[in-house]
Amino acid sequence: MIDFSIILAGFGGQGILSAGKMAAEAALYEGKEVSWFPSYGPEMRGGTANCSVVISDEPIGSPVVNDADVLICLNQPSVEKFESYLKPGGILIIDSSLFTVEPTRTDIKFIPMGASQIATDLGNMAFATISMLGCMSEATGCFSKESFESALYQILPERRHKFIPGNMEAFSKGAEFAK
Amino acid sequence: MAVVFEATKGLTGKPFHYCPGCTHGIIHRLIGEVMCELGILEETVSVASVGCSYNSYEYFACDAVQAAHGRAPAVATGIKRNIKDKFVFTYQGDGDLASIGAAEITHAAARGEKITAFFVNNAVYGMTSGQMAPTTLLGQVTTTSPFGRDASYQGYPINVSELLSNLTGSAYIERVCLTDYKNIQAAKKAIKQAFLAQQANLGFTMVEFLSTCPTNWGKEPLEAMDWLKEKMLPQYPLGVYKGADIDFKKLEADFKAARGGENA
Amino acid sequence: MAEKRVLMKGNEVIAEAALRAGCRNYFGYPITPQTEVMHYMAKKMVQIGGNFVQAESEVAAINMVYGAAAAGFRVMTSSSSPGISLKQEGISYIAGAELPAVVVNIVRAGPGLGGILPAQSDYFQATKGGGHGDYRNIVIAPASVQELYEMTVEAFNLADKYRMLAMIMGDGTLGQMMEPVAFRDVEPIVNVEKPWAASGRNGRAEHNVVTSIYINPDDLEAKNNELKAKYDYIEENEVRFEEINCEDADIVLVAYSTCSRICKNVMKQAAQKGLKVGMLRPITLWPFPHKKINEIAAKSNVKAFLSVELSNGQMVEDVKLAVNGQKPVHFFGRNGGNLPSQKEILDRIIEINENPMGGAL
Hints:
By secondary structure, chain A is α/β, with parallel strands linked by helices. Helix content of chain A is about 35%, strand content about 25%.
C-alpha cells in the first residue's frame, strides 16, 4: 500500500483529531509507516478542525494530503471544503445523523451513515467517529478491526480499557454501512 | 607595625578604571570584603552588566559572567537555578536595571529568584556620557534633558526599591548611600544581609546604592557628595524597604553553625 | 523483535530528545506553533528535577539560556520566528562568549507577526547571522519526527563539542505532525568537560570569566579570527546531506525538511513520467553542502537545478553560489504558510526539462 490518505474534518470538539490519531495507531500496529497532521489555528474551541492521516508501506513523503482516498466529514462545511480533495474513486463518509448533503462529485463513492445515532444508542458520543473508522476499515481494508482493537489496548491507559468493548461495538456497527 | 587595613582578597587587585570621586570603587570593595568575611568567595558567581561597570568581572575575584544590557537578572536566573547552594549576584547601574532591564529585574523579583541585585543609582547614564536615566531627578540637567528633566515632557523618576518591594517575591530590599564612614558601614551591613537572605532562600534580594557621578554631573568629587545628600536623598530616602522583620542575627548564626564555624 | 515505535508529535519529540540528551534546563516563552515543546518540558523537566522557567519574554529566556550555559550546563530554548527574532541579541552573545546551547525554531510565516502556518522564511536569519557580528550557528534541518529525535540529541553534542549554538530548524508541519518514533540509542551522549564554566571557583586559583567583550581591537580581531578558524573546521567536517538519484539525474532538486518530503513524492511521479530527477537534501543548512552541490553541478548529465522552498527564494542563493554558474538554477517556492502541491513542483520540473535555461535565475 502506497500513501493511503485520509482527511477527517468537522467542528472542534467532535473528536476529529483523536479519531485521526487512532486510525494512525491502528496502522502503526500493523507495522505501517504513518503520519498525522492537524489543522492548527487560532481557534481553540468551536472552530473547524481537520487532520490528515497517511498510511504507507514506504517512508511517507508529505503528511499534507491534497488527494485523499477517504474523506470523513462530521459537518456540511467540511464536505464543501474538502470534497474536491478526494481522488477519483475515493470514498466520502458523512455522519447523516447530523446533516444531509448530496455530493457534487459523481466519480466517488458516497457512504452516508448514522454515526451519531450509533453513538447515542451505545450511550457514548465519542463512539460516533469510531463507527466511521469502522466503516472506512471495512470499505478499504486500510487497517483491520483486530489491529484497531489491539492498538486501543496498547495506547489507552488501563483504567480506560473498560470502554474498549463499546468502542469495538461502534466500530462493527459502522462497518455494516460499508457492506 | 600592626596592620590596620588590607586589600580584600575578594577583589583581583586590578586597578579600577572608574573616575575620581565615583563610588563604584567603594561598593566593589565592600562586596569583596563581605564575600571574604562570609567565606563565600569561591562559591559565588557575579553577573556584570552594561554601563560603567561592564567589566566588574575584572575586579571581583569570584567567577563571573558578563551579560547583555539589562539582562543580568535573567542570566543570573539561568546560573542560580543550576547552583542552588551557591551565591549569585548581579551588579547593575540605573540605565541597565531600571530602563532597558526593567522587565528582567521585575520578573526576577516576582519569581522570588534567590539572587542578589546590587543596584548602583547615580541618576544618570555614565558610560555613554551623561544621558537622562530613569532615576534622573526632576530639574536635573543631562545631555538628553539639557533644559532640566521636565515631568510634563520626560516623566518622573522611578523609585526602584519602593517599586520592587511591593512584589511578594522580593525578600529583602534596602537603599543605602556611601557619603561617610557611618553610611559606608551601613552599606556593608546591607550587602551582608542580602547574601544571608539569599543563602536562606528567602527570595529576591537587592541593595540600592545611591552613588555619585562627578564627571557627568559636572561637579568636583566632594561637591558631588553634597549634591547627592541635598538632592538625591529627598527623592530616594534611605532605609529597609522589604525584610525589616528578618532576624539577620539568627540567619548569620545559623549560617556560621552550618559551616562549622570555619569562617567565624 | 520489531523495534518499538510510538506515535508522537514532532514538538514533543524534540523535548523528549533534549531530556534524553541530558539537558536539564529549559527556558521559554509561549508562541505557536512550538508550544508543545514547552508544555512537555513544563511537566517532564520538573518531574526529573531539572529547571523549567516560563520567562517573561523571549529576550529573558535566551539570557537564562546564556546563564545556564555559562555555568556549564546543557540548556535549550525553543520558539518560532518572531520569538527567534527577539532572541537574536542573546544568540549573538552566546556566539561571542562561545557557549554551547540548543535553540529550536519551529518556523512560521513572516515577516512581522505574519501567520502561524509552516514556512522556511527564516533561512537567511538562521544561516547568515541573525544578530550582530561575525558569527555562525550550526543549523540542522530534520525532515521527520524520527530525525527530530536523533538530530536534537546530535545538536547538544555538536554544541558542546564546538562551544557554540546549534539550532534545530523545523517548521509548523514538522512540529505539529505525529509520526512513529523509535527512541533508539543514538551516539553516546558526549559529556564534554567544561573547565571554562563560571559556577564558582571551588578551589580554582583563578576566577573564570565568561564574556564577549574585547574592547581592544587587536584582541577582538584575534578572537574573531579564532572563531573563523573554528567555523572553517566545521565547514570541512560537519556538513550533512542526503543525496538521492543524482548519478544520472537531468534535473536536481534542492530542498530541505518539509519541502524535501514533498519532493520525494514528486520524484516518484516524475519517474513514472520518465523524467530523471534527483535530489540533494541539505541536512545542515550551515555548514551548507556547497562542495557536494558543486560536484553534482559538474556532472555532464545534470541539466539544471531547482531549489524548492517555503519562502520567496532564500536557500536558492546558496545553491547558486555552490553551482557557481556551471548550470542554470531555478526556484520554486510557496510562502505565507502554504505548502507547494506535488503537481505544482512536477509542472515546474517538466518546464525546466523542456527548457533548462528558461526562467533560470
